[in-house]
Amino acid sequence: MKRPGRRRVLAATGAALAAGLAGCSGGDGGDGGDGTDGGDGGSSDIEIPAEAESRVEDYLTADPAADNYDGITAMGSGSVTVDVGARGNGGNFAYAPVAIVVESGTTVEWDWVAGNHNVLAAEGSDFDLDSGSARRDDSYEFTFDSAGVGTYYCTPHQSVGMKGAVVVVG
Questions:
Q1: Is 24 annotated as a binding residue?
Q2: Which of 23, 71, 79, 133 lies most in the core, judged by the most C-beta atoms within 10 Å?
Q3: Which ranges of the chain have pLDDT less than 50?
């Protein structure tokens, strides 16, 4: 029997911890603690379908792996932000958080923090994400109106693992 990898163990541990703490904070959403908007405060109640979680795991851990992937971050609904050009993959070649789950109707904004990057849907993505050619100091937003899994990458940095994912539920 194959032993689970470090990332899968960390993801499972994080999920168990999050489930145990789900009712411990009221909060108003606010800052998610990682530089992102915490959504509507109901983010801990989002249940990720197993099939969607598996698709994200397979995509982000495939060669080249996104070295900053440690599970899917619940972001809630409304408007959330993903940093583009965050530290990871040997430089400023990452999205942060790398994988998120949001509710249908949520607008995700990708904000450039460093370098020339873009957001482009990967083969098999349920959403047609396309910020255009790689550029510096920009932003891109997309409103997710239906459930599905959006997988994406940065064109010039895909070979070093600059990949991300959005799971949309509801």
A1: no
A2: 71
A3: 1-43
